[in-house]
Amino acid sequence: MELSYLVRGRVTFAALAVILAAGRQTDAGLPVSGVPVPELAAFDDSMQAHMARDSIDVGVLGVSRNGCIVYLRGFGSLSREVNLPENTPMRLASVEKPITSAAIRRLIADGQLSWTDYVFDLGQPAGGILPHDPWDGIGDDRLDNIVVQHVFDHRGGWDRATAPNGDPQFNSIGIAGAMGVAHPAGRDNTVRFMLSEPLEFTPGTNGCRDDDGNSTFCYSNFGYMVLGRIIEQVSGMSHLEYVRRNVLTPQLWVPSTEIFLGRTFAANQSPREPAYDCDGCTCTNVYNPAGAAVRCPYGGWNHESFVGHGNLVASAVPLLVYMENYQVGVGGAAGTPLTGTGSGSIHTGALNGTSTVMWQRSDGINIVVLYNNWEGGDHSFMQGQMISDIIDGGGITWPTFCVDGFWVQLGATNTLEVGGYNAPFRSVTTALASTTAGTKLRFKTSGTSNWTGTINERMRLDAPFGTVRIGQQ
Known about the structure:
The protein is an alpha+beta fold. The protein is built from ten helices and 21 strands. β7 and β8 form a beta hairpin. The longest helix has 15 residues. The two termini are 21 Å apart.
């Protein structure tokens, strides 16, 4: 029996219920967390096989169908002692770009921005959005013609493959050195530097070639960093805050705990994040180029400067929610609000130590894969393809039980409390102190609690397996 309570305002409650569900673990391979889904055991097997073959030690797979997250499991270990919870957040890399796209579309829909607004204020009669001054004179007369639509569609005039300085988002050391500013260069200095550089092609046109030699757009990390700054300039909020309030919101059951800013160094990261693995790779430290080399995921770039194109950290659920509500894509229709299922599109993300994919099918089924390793190939894309192939093979009896949410097990003895199915919160008090508006709290075991109090945020309280009693009778 399922008891679902939607709580708004300041409401006291007493009496909800739950019993422990039997769990299934895979017979061999990496440890697995999350609600076992026997009907989709082939997904478990596929993840185990791929991760073993390519020596990936941390992964999360989430699958939704017709708005219900029917599968959400974690593979591997968060530490030597702790299995990886299924709600583990990871760096999104370029999977952030469709989220930025949705934010831009929202600003336009609200009349705060126009597709034809000039991006840079370089003295045009109509002005521009961003007030950055070129650090060494204007590098190209065409810069003042760049409009929001151009940047959104990866047609802003920048080609990282042919530019003398490559991808500016990964050239912090060179930019800071040229400008004589402190390391790392940061977003605003990077914009100022690029305003003094020539463009590779005319804004609004195709400046690259695809694998077949056809003219196409030039994928630009820098362009989406610029869009992130536009969101902040126009809205008066940080990029993250705007996304939380207008794109992936508590009204869509995305709590703020599940999408947050990524940090460069491990000491500053969330303890819920796994270690990012790059098979021993080392890089010059962008914060101290003259110092010792660092492991690339931890100082090989300034992660804080990737806002708009690759900074965010999130669990799988916000990405599945995104695909139920917005179109995935690379420019074009990306970020368009949906009234039904998406038209089918894919966006991947990759950094040293990170491989991600949002796989939006056109049949109401969506797939998210998060891995902590990219070296050797786009692992998340390959896994998404394998899961999609299993689905296309037919023969699946689709479950209807939705497995997302944060789990509470009254009186549990687990060491890690992050609200995962196998790492549940041990009390109502801990659960409420660890969660925010938009949270689904699911009680896992039978039992009672004498907790009483108030809830003043939007939450859903759920007892999917039976009855638990909370509060005084």
